[in-house]
UniProtKB/TrEMBL annotation:
Active site residues of this protein: 101 (nucleophile)
Catalysed conversion reaction: D-cysteine + H2O = hydrogen sulfide + pyruvate + NH4(+) + H(+)
Domain Tryptophan synthase beta chain-like PALP: 36-344
Enzyme Commission identifier(s): 4.4.1.15
Cellular component, GO annotation: mitochondrion
Family: Belongs to the ACC deaminase/D-cysteine desulfhydrase family.
Species this protein is from: Salvia splendens
One of the record's GO molecular function terms: D-cysteine desulfhydrase activity
Keyword entries, A-Z: Lyase, Mitochondrion, Pyridoxal phosphate, Transit peptide
InterPro entries according to UniProt: ACCD_DCysDesulf, D-Cys_desShydrase, TrpB-like_PALP, TrpB-like_PALP_sf
Name of the featured protein: D-cysteine desulfhydrase
PANTHER family: 1-AMINOCYCLOPROPANE-1-CARBOXYLATE DEAMINASE-RELATED
């Protein structure tokens, strides 16, 4: 009955039936519906990175431009996850992540778009867990849109686990008469994996429209919870593309993610070994969401050279790992066309401002002589503009 209703006048925030790519129709289960939450397709353009190996060209897929408050790779997963939540009659969403989780911020905003409550479990340091978390970066957006925030320590998260913690909150809300829907950290379950299976179709359609015959030899992205890489790798393999998918993990280690990605694809009844469809390398450095001066300096240099601002937790570390690999193994990359997927997360930069301040010193007080006469011209500002009332 619901499917026979007239289509809404605007596609954004609409719920519509989902039709998978032909090469993915044998996967199971196939989502029945999808919510339009992002601005797709996101652009692809040449990325003029310095010091590339001979003949190497890098392009960038701007998933950081998939929306405003909802920007980043998490939106693609949420389009499927929230469609299921609404279909099941949920009135609120539960999810979990780090104190500056991009996924939690995107979930909080998307939930409010769809008139759903949102409950976030955020882990932070033992020293800060009993204090007001503040309004920096993603937290500002989450708290502005009215998400409920429960803080736990990193140690509690490690010992209890995300599944148990979200179940505790789910049972509490059920006892209060609510109808919660739980989304795992990063939106990375088998259903969320469809977000980047669909992104592969989007990339292929973009390559078929005025790309000048460009094909990509490699796709590179950060790996933080596994869903993005699972979708990219599975979609690329299913579509019969010869493109190699590379992941730079920013938490845990490659062996963990090989197992996790395979678990996600197994959940879609895709008979494939993760090690056959993706190459995963370690790029976590000092640890998840912890940056070295070298990593932040690299990000500043890339922004200054290309205008592309990377986030410090995901794409910044992945690009740093990719460029380091290119410098250490140039023959591996020579002459290849590489697509780097920028997964967003720029609000995470606000937590790094103290580390970044020494890297950016390009400001000064303008030197103005007191005797310069005032000139009137276009774009003038009235003298009364700055006078007190």
């Amino acid at each position: 009955m619901e499917d026979s209703m007239p289509e809404p006048p605007f596609e954004f925030l609409s719920r519509k039936p989902y039709m998978p790519p032909l090469w993915a129709t044998h996967l199971n289960p196939i989502p029945s519906h999808i919510f339009s939450l992002g601005h797709f397709p996101t652009p692809i353009h040449k990325w003029n990175l310095p010091n590339l190996p001979k003949g190497t060209e890098v392009y960038i897929k701007r998933d950081d431009l998939s929306g405003m408050q909802l920007s980043g790779n998490k939106v693609r997963k949420l389009e499927f996850l929230l469609a299921e939540a609404v279909a099941q009659g949920a009135d609120c969403i539960i999810t979990i992540g780090g104190i500056q989780s991009n996924h939690c911020r995107a979930t909080a905003v998307a939930a409010k778009y769809l008139n759903l409550g949102c409950y976030l479990i955020l882990f932070t340091s033992e020293k800060l867990v009993d204090k007001d978390p503040g309004l920096t970066g993603n937290l500002l957006v989450e708290r502005l849109v009215g998400a409920h925030v429960d803080l736990i320590s990193k140690e509690e998260y490690a010992s209890i686990g995300g599944v148990a913690l979200t179940n505790i909150l789910k049972e509490r809300l059920l006892s209060e008469g609510r109808k919660p829907y739980v989304i795992p950290g990063g939106g990375s379950n088998s259903l969320g994996t469809w977000g980047y299976v669909e992104a592969v179709r989007e990339i292929q359609e973009q390559l078929g429209k005025g790309s000048g015959g460009i094909t990509f030899d490699d796709i590179v992205a950060a790996c933080g919870s596994g869903g993005t890489i699972a979708g990219l790798a599975l979609g690329t393999w299913l579509s019969g593309s010869a493109t190699k998918v590379h992941a730079y993990c920013v938490s845990d280690d490659p062996n963990y993610f090989y197992d996790h990605v395979e678990g996600l694809t197994d959940g879609l009844q895709a008979v494939v070994s993760s090690r056959d469809i993706v190459n995963i390398q370690n790029a976590k450095g000092l640890g998840y969401a912890i940056n070295t001066t070298e990593e932040l300096t690299f990000m500043q240099e890339i922004a200054k050279a290309t205008g592309v601002v990377l986030d410090p937790v995901y794409s910044g570390k992945a690009a740093y790992g990719m460029m380091r690999d290119m410098a250490e193994n140039p023959r591996k990359w020579e002459g290849r066309k590489v697509l780097f997927v920028h997964t967003g997360g720029l609000l995470g930069l606000y937590e790094k401002t103290e580390q970044i301040v020494p890297l950016v010193g390009n400001w000064r007080r303008m030197d103005i002589q007191a005797s310069i006469p005032r000139q009137v011209g276009t774009g003038k500002v009235s003298r009364n503009f700055y006078r007190p009332m």
